[in-house]
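Appendix B, record 7
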Amino acid sequence: MPSQNHVHKYHRRRLGLAHSVWACALPNCSHYTPKHMESMVEGKLSICNQCGEEFTLTTDSLKEDKPRCDECRYEQIKSDDNVPLTDVMRDFLDGKR
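C-alpha cells (predicted):
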C-alpha cells in the first residue's frame, strides 16, 4: 500500500501475546513502527485518541495504549480528584488504618 501523507493516529497494536507495535488507527492506513524503531515514535505528531486534535507524542503520552494529548490527560487527572471518598477510604488515606 502506498504511503499516506497525513498525521497518524497512533495506538499500540498487539501482535500475538508478547509483542506490540505502534500503528496508525485511521482507516485505509497500514502504517506501523517496527519494534526495533519504537524509540523513534516519541516526538512525532499524532492525533489525540480522545479529542482528535494534533499533538506531539511524549514519554508520558506513550505510557497509554491509545495516547492522548496533555490537555485530555490533565482533564482526566483533574476529574479523578473529584471522586467522592467514603469514610473508610478517607481514614485509610489519613493513615488511621
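Remarks on this record: The longest strand covers residues 10-15. Helices lie at 70-80, 87-93.
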